[in-house]
Amino acid sequence: xxxxxxxxxxxxxxxxxxxxxxxxxxxxxxxxxxxxxxxxxxxxxxxxxxxxxxxxxxxxxxxxxxxxxxxxxxxxxxxxxxxxxxxxxxxxxxxxxxxxxxxxxxxxxxxxxxxxxxxxxxxxxxxxxxxxxxxxxxxxxxxxxxx
Length: 147
Known about the structure:
- By secondary structure, this protein is an alpha+beta fold.
- It has a single domain, classed as 2-Layer Sandwich (Alpha-D-Glucose-1,6-Bisphosphate, Chain A, domain 4), CATH 3.30.530.20.
- Helices cover about 30% and strands about 35% of the residues.
- The chain has a seven-stranded antiparallel beta sheet with strand order 1-7-6-5-4-3-2.
- The N and C termini lie far apart (about 35 Å).
């Protein structure tokens, strides 16, 4: 069994705008990392993300960045002794619409990891919904959502 998942959604904004909303810590903190993001997502860098619903900063190890196309990073799995890999892809549907695809993989084959993968799948779908409403309407859905 290969524990991985994929979520996706279309956002009515150009790929460059959608990419920047994920890569830029100021924008990311307005709809996703409600506790803040320490820096831009740049290849080879390590940043931290903090969430109001999961307090405590998470290190995010940026492995590959292709501007307006791909962000790949690793972060700690729930057991904490290995990392999972997240890929965020930005595909132009038309000049004003972007398909965002998020895949996460690399969990060990056990019940605790399976449960964690479900939680992360939920979190990434939530992130996509928040990204869409933030970019298309300027609303932060996460504000007050968890507290």
